Structure formats: C-alpha cells, structure tokens
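User: Mind token order:
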Amino acid sequence: MKHAKTPVAFALCLALAASLLIGCNRSDPPTETEAAQETETYDFSVFFGNAEDPVKISELISRYETEKGIVVKPIITEAGDDNERALWRALESSNPPAAYLISANTNEGNIVEGGFMAELSSILPSVSGRSIPGIFRGSGWAADKRLISDLVGEDRAEAFLADMRSADYEDWVGFVDKLNAYILRGTAASFRLNGREYGFPEEKGPYAAQLNGVFAVAGGDADFRVNELLSLALSTSDPTVWAAARRSAAQSAETEAENAGTDADGESTTAGAFDAVRPGLSVYIEGLDLITSHMAGRYAPGVRGEGFIDDALYGKKEVRDIFAKGKAAFAATDSGDLDEIAALNAAMAANLVLLPIKLPYAENGLPGVREGRVVNSSIPVRVTHSFCVNARFAPDVQRKALDFILWLLDATRSLDGSLENSVRAYFDAGDVLPYASEEENLKSYAETLHKEGMDVYLTTNRWDAAHKESLLNFMFTLWYEG
C-alpha cells in the first residue's frame, strides 16, 4: 500500500511544481478582468484602455455583434490609469487582445520587437503600415449647427459649412462684418462665400436671437490670446523662415560681440530678420484685430479695454460659459475639450462642428510652402491614438480583428454630432496643419509677450495703422532679443 501512494504523491508534487513555474512567468496574479475573461465566450478582445468613451464603445460593439454575429470583448481601464502599462499587461496576459489602441506617445519599438504588432498589408493588401489612425484631436472655430440653420436656413446649412471651410480670408471678413451687423442691429444682409450667395432671415431664430457678438475670446487667458493665433500665423506657412531668421539673429549677435565696430552689418542682419518674420507677425495682428473687434460678452457685446484682460470676466472658463450659453457664434476650441462644453450645454456639444481659423496669409505676402487659401481651409490636427493588430494571433483571427477596426472607424464616422468626426473629415481630406501651439519655442515667446506689455494693445479699443505697426515692432523686438 505504501508503494501505491508514492506515484500519487509524486504526481501531486509535479503538479505543484508546474503551477509554481507557471506562476513565475507572471509578475503578478491574474486581475479580475483576466479571470472573468477565462469564463466568458467571445471571438476576440480589443484593448481600448481609457482612451475611448466606454458607453459609446459598448453600443458600437453590440451593433457589430448584431450585424456580423461576431462577439468582441472590449478591454477598458479606469480613467487615470497608465495606459501603456495596462497595454503591456494585457499583451502579456493569458488572454491577450487581438487588436489594441496605442497612444502616439507609446514606444512602438518595444511592441514591434515583442512580436505584438502585425504588418497590416500582410492581413489585407489594401491597408498599409502597422497602425490605423483611430482617435484625432483638432482645433478651430467651434460652431453650433443649429445656429447655422438659424442664420442661413436648415436646407442650406451643410452647403454653408462646406463653403465656409473653403472660403478665402476676404469672404471671411465680409461674413464676420455682416454677421456682427445682424447681431447688433438686425440687418438682414446678403453675403458671398466661395462664390455662392447667402442671406440672413428678416426674423431671427431662437439661437440667432441669443447672440451678442461673433467670437468668444479669452482676453484674460494668456494661452488663447497669444498662443493659438500666433502659432498658427507663424508655423503653418513655413516654420523654417522663422528658424532661419532666428539663427541669423544669433549669429549676428556673436559676430558683433567678436568684432566691435560692425554696427552696419548688425543692422543689416536685423533688417533681414525683420523682413523674414514681418509677414507672419502682420498675419497675426490683422487676425487678432478682426477677432477682438467682434466679441461677445456675458450680458453685452465685448470690447477691447481693461475688462477684456480681466481673468474674472474673460478667462478661459468664463468665455467657455459665454459660448455655451449661445452668446457667441464661434469659439476657439480644441476637440479634446468637448466634455467641458458638454457639462455646460450637452445639446450644443452634440451639434458642434469645427471650422478653420482663417488668417490673411496671402494678403500679407507670407512666404512658405502653402498658399493662404489652402491654409485657411485646414485646421491643426494630430492623431492621438491608433489601432494595431496583434501579430501573435492566427491569420484568421488577425483578419477578423482588422475587419472589426475598419468597421468601427466607419461606424464612428456616421455618429451624428461628433466633434471628433469633424476633425476626422479634415484628416481624411488631407486638410491638416501641424499642432504648432505645442512647440516650446512659441510657448515661451507667447509667455514673454504676455509678461512684457501685450496688455497695452489689448486694452486699446481701436487699432489704426500706427497701433499695428507699433505692435509689430514690439513683437519683433521681444522675439529678436529673446
């Protein structure tokens, strides 16, 4: 009998050792999500992390199951979790995702080396690369489509938005002036956009009746008043113009320090740098003048003055509230801030569309790789997250995962009222500009302008040619000496 027990005991020891060895391959025990996955039935899982709205994803996955008969398990993490760490944990788990959403900041090299990122053309020849853009972020003028219907008629709203996107700066200025007159005096004038004529109705609709200005402008917030417009004006045409001019300025300073008595050369270099950057500065100043001359306020039209630079009156939060209450037709908005608008006015947030922030590039002879009309039809866009397929799965599962991703992106495009879809439309058309406001050199310059006296100009009610020339010289001097 003793000999009969020995094999059993030996087997138990082997089982225990095996379990310990298996455990050694994991850094920590299975999570509740992983344990639950082992008992669930699904075709494959997709890692979304905390980058997407879980309610939206759940609804879309339910639609996919109904349409295709394929069950997809979403892997969603808590808000605030480290997405990259959570992704690695999911990929190395016993139930890894067949597809996953990856942040633009993630180190793809490690994932590729680990064999987790498939070449998509090997799955479907019509798709190239290792990832497909999934989540976009863009900025521009946000406008409520319901207000647009009030202004030009519901039957012409979509045509108006398309024409506004393509319109040049001259058309834009004409529209802004006539909209301002309509808001303040009820003047039902006609105007042209992109060669097509539109007109305001004699009787204002409910959304148009709430307006007291064209733009919601955060004069009390240094980020908006300088960064957005300035970076757009200076970087969308040809950033190398500014970079080269700044290098020239630095070299000139070194030369002057080494060779006393070369003032003429120094002056020549300064003039050359000024000529190089003057068009970009002029673009910014003209655009800023138009916008800050047609502002909305909380209770009455806004004007440049001491109140305009007061954070309590025209700070970012206060101006967003002005827009959410329908007092302004347009507000400079980043699509990533949609939740903040939704918290104030959910119905408006569901009906927003982004339009380009137009500036007088061509009118100011701005040199660069793009002509003004093209830039004025585009918005700054960046891809924040992309979809990838796990190369460790069998080919048939990889194809199912890729088919789901493509379906999901098409389904997302069809969602009504999605501000992200507005951004995606620019991306799909190739009408995109760099997110220049995030460049550190421009941020630093913007902060310097704010600290060194920009308020003097923002509190001046009307700008004539002398004011604009003074502002231009002020901005150039700070940039050149900085």
Remarks:
- The chain has 21 helices and eleven strands.
- The two ends are 92 Å apart (CA to CA).
